[in-house]
Fold:
Amino acid sequence: MIVYDLHCSAGHAFEGWFTSGPEFDRQKAAGLVSCPVCDGTDIQRRPSSKVRVAKAPKAAPPPPPPPAAQDAISGISPALLARLREVVRNTEDVGERFPEEARKIHYDEAPARSIRGKASREEAEELSEEGIDFSQLPPFLTRESH
Structure:
């Protein structure tokens, strides 16, 4: 395995492990390499101060560290991250209708429920001015894989 220093277009740095240089190129071209922080796929290899080649373990891998030591990239434990993703999966995705649905719920014109969707910056400002509470979800909570 070869370990590459990678950077996304948003400036996040991370490592990627690949069986070869051509395999990295293939996965990048297929859109399979993404930033673990922002989920961006505009990824570049950066020069490393040293060449690192990771060898596959010959024996069984050691047991995973306790959950407290397994911090996710975003600083959230894997167990909490899994729970947050579960909560997000249990919301109704209303897509582009988010501002309209949020208003209906706020003004008791629709049943109260947890929703998620998309809003432009202007729509978000209008909702905020109307006193409608909402939060922006980071990409790592809404993507299905990882």
Q: What stands out?
A: Helices lie at 21-29, 78-89, 98-106, 121-129, 139-142. The two ends are 20 Å apart (CA to CA). Residues 81 and 141 are 8 Å apart (CA to CA).
